[in-house]
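Re: that chain you flagged

S.,

Sorry for the slow reply, it's been a week of failed gels. I finally had a moment to sit down with the sequence you sent. For the record, here it is as I used it:
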Amino acid sequence: MRIFATLSSPVRLNLLVLFSAGLLFWSALAAMLPTLPLYVEETGANSITIGIVMGSFAIGLLSSRSWLAYLADYRGRKLVMVIGMVAVAIAPVLYLLTESVPLLIGIRAFHGLSIAAFALAYSALVIDLSPPQQRGELIGYMSLVNPVGMALGPAVGGFLHEWAGYLPAFLVASGLGFLGLVFTLRVQEPRLPDQMTVTAVAKPRPHFWRLLVTSPIRIPATVLLLIGLAFGTLSTFVPLFVQEAGVALNVGLFYTAAAIASFAIRLLVGRASDQRGRGLFITVSLILYTLSMAVLWIATSAPAFLLAAIFEGAGAGILIPMMAALMADRSHPNERGRNFSLCMAGFDLGIAIAGPIFGAIAIQTGYRTTFGLCAGLAFLGLLVFLTLSSKDLPHSLRFALGRGRDIYAVERLGFNS
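Prediction finished late last night. Pasting the structure tokens below so you have them in one place:
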């Protein structure tokens, strides 16, 4: 963590406040993971309905991407972080007020706005504060809020649910969000030298979604779509799969194991990616995701489920930070929010459609088959990245294996060429 010694004291303090806000955000969000599918199931919902409710999280993500990216780039990152934190604080209370499936779908979509806002603005602000040659390292350290929060949140939520029911579990999730709002309001945002003022831009650019087909964004978004399908299936159906398999495992431990693996791997890969490029580590992450889904496919014991969690956590711990760094490499400062948002839209869409699609499959074949299919999707994502991540097959293979630079980068960062 020597990078922090090179930063000024005000910047270090600002990063600490920002880190605290991020930790509370992810803890609040993750506290709902082991309990919400069970809460929806108690309303009498079947697998398809549970999938629709859980997958509607991504409706909020997708529908808010364009205007949140505009706000982040032209009105500031802090405003968008506040929006996200307010949403994550309010949503758990709203769940408690109804057992109506249509209302739960709407609340879940509103909940999705939280991650669209906060994760986007948090990543963009970290990038703003990062020296370009150490961008991957600082992103790696600051992204630790995700695995730590994903470890604490499910453990707390799962324990409170088993001990006292849904009410305290949901209220604590809300309280974490409101505490995070206090820290978010104290974050100091630097002004970028080339950031446009709001008066210079009348409306969000109409070609926002058209940029998805451009070469720097298309393949990362496609890969994240395939992984989003796997992740959406995992986050929706693991609690129910554990029950179906008759395995004696507190499902909160699954998410905790994934978070610990994600934490450990992020300490290693950020700095290394500044030296070897992002491609190699994205490839490794896709291999780990494939292994995770394959192990879930055959899992019949608690150790097997935890092994799958470790593979998934390690894969996630590499993939999202590396995609953030990759989009930063490929963007000018006032494009970072937009480009990262577009790239993550693939992930959002995967999450949105995973629940209904794989819920329908689960009714016919059981949850085990769904994870076998997800292993195939993750492997397809690996093949797409290996062969299409650059302008042609030779360049793609070199970039994906860490033997060539990213030809779409707007800054020459000194990777292997």
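What I noticed first: The two ends are 27 Å apart (CA to CA).

Talk soon,
D.
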